[in-house]
């Protein structure tokens, strides 16, 4: 029991630290001034980037987590579970795609002119945006019974379709693709890309459901099952 309390306390401390980094990553203070000025001149600003959207969802999920787990607000427990269930695989997608493309060519994701001019995002910001949100949600799901729901699949599909429309709408407004690699594709290729991304998110969703079951079974033996949410 003492070991369990120690692990629980360590988990909450880690979550708190990572949450601070996530909030930092969501602010303009984490980015170079040149990039902030560039993005702020775009219609939609930074709020049209899926990285930013998923980060907002992560922060909301963690706020709900603290409300449910530490403030006893049981009325929002299902909302919290829904947020955790859908945000974790989305952050998995963001983490996978960003680090893969960034390792190939950073200008696939970043403005080429700014990058060529030497404007760089600090590493602490990159991990606050593209790694820590995923890790903190993985940590948060320990001890939570999350279930597969049909509405989650609907959310992934509707989000993907909506985001496909959004990126084209703002490309027309800004005459600029929010992710430069999209400009190398035809509309059909972009549609296939979004569809593939949705499938990948669904794959992560199923994987993390299984991961949650295995983790909770091992960390919460029968004597501690009542502590599961």
From TrEMBL:
GO CC term, one of those recorded: membrane
Localization: Endomembrane system
Ranges that cross the membrane: 12-27, 47-68, 80-101, 121-140, 152-170, 176-205
Broad class of where this protein is predominantly found: membrane
Membrane-topology annotation of the record: Multi-pass membrane protein
Keywords: Membrane, Transmembrane, Transmembrane helix
Pfam families: Far-17a_AIG1 (PF04750)
UniProt protein name: FAR-17a/AIG1-like protein
């Amino acid at each position: 029991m003492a070991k369990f309390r120690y692990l629980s306390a360590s988990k909450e401390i880690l979550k708190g630290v990572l949450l601070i980094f996530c909030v930092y990553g969501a602010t303009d203070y984490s980015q170079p001034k040149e990039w902030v000025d560039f993005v702020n001149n775009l219609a939609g600003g930074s709020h049209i980037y899926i990285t930013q959207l998923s980060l907002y969802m992560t922060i909301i999920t963690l706020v709900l987590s603290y409300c449910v787990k530490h403030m006893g607000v049981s009325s929002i427990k299902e909302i919290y579970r829904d947020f955790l269930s859908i945000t974790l695989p989305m952050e998995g997608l963001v983490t996978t795609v960003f680090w893969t493309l960034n390792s190939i060519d950073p200008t696939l994701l970043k403005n080429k002119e700014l990058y060529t001019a030497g404007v760089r995002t600090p590493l602490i910001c990159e991990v606050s945006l593209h790694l820590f949100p995923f890790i903190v949600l993985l940590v948060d799901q320990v001890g939570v019974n999350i279930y597969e729901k049909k509405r989650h699949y609907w959310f992934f599909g509707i989000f993907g379709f909506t985001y496909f429309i959004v990126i084209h709408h703002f490309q027309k407004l800004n005459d600029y693709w929010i992710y430069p690699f999209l400009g190398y594709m035809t509309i059909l290729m972009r549609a296939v890309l979004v569809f593939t991304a949705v499938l990948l998110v669904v794959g992560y969703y199923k994987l993390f459901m299984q991961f949650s079951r295995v983790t909770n079974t091992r960390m919460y033996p029968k004597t501690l099952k009542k502590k599961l949410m």
